[in-house]
Amino acid sequence: MVSARGQIVALGGGGFSMEVNPALDDFILGLARSPCPRICFVPTASGDNENYVVRFYKRFATAQGRPTRLELFRRSVTDLAAFAKEQDVIFVGGGNTANMLAVWRLHDFDGALRGALESGSLLAGISAGSICWFEQGITDSFGPEL
Questions:
Q1: Rounded CA gap, 22 and 18, in Å?
Q2: Which of 4, 13, 42, 67 is such that its CA lies 20 to 30 A from the CA of 87?
C-alpha cells in the first residue's frame, strides 16, 4: 500500500506496451492505495496514439482495477487537478518526452501530477513516462543525437 504521500515507479521497459507477461503491471497495481485501483493512462508522449490506448485497455480491462485514460490532444476533462487526485495510479506512456512536457506545462498537468503525488497517488511510466519524473535525463526527442 502507498503511504499518505505517493510513490513513483520509473520503468526502463516492459509492461503492457511491450510484453505479454503482466508481472510489472501487477507489481504497479500491487503498490496502489486501493485493492481495486483507479488506473489512468496518459498517452501524451505518443500524441494520444489510439493503438497505445487500446493496448492499455486490453491489459487492464481484465486486471484488478478500473482503467481510464486522460488525453490532452482531445481533452475532455475540465479540472485536471481534481481528476488526477482521484486516480490511484497514473501511468504515463512512452514517446516524445520534450513534446509531452511542453503539452503538460501548457495545460498545467505537471502541477496536477504534483498534487496527485502529494495526495497519495502512485505515478508510473515507461520510456518518456519514466524520465519525466526527473529534473534531467537523456532523450532522443530532438532527433537521433542524444
A1: 10
A2: 13
Beta bridge partners of 9: 124
Block residue for cell numbers 512536457: 101
Main-chain dihedrals φ then ψ at residue 39, nearest 5 degrees: -115, 120
Instruction: Give Cβ neighbours of residue 48 (< 8 Å, ≥ 6 apart).
Output: 71, 72, 73, 74
From first to last of its 146 residues, what are the pLDDT tens digits of the chain? 445 578 999 987 767 766 677 888 889 999 999 989 999 999 999 999 999 999 999 888 877 789 999 999 999 999 999 999 999 999 999 999 999 999 999 999 999 999 999 999 999 999 999 999 988 888 888 887 76
Sign for the pseudo-dihedral over CA of 140, 26, 37, 75: positive
**Cα dist from 26 to 46, 78, 108, 118, 119, whole Å:** 23, 30, 30, 23, 22
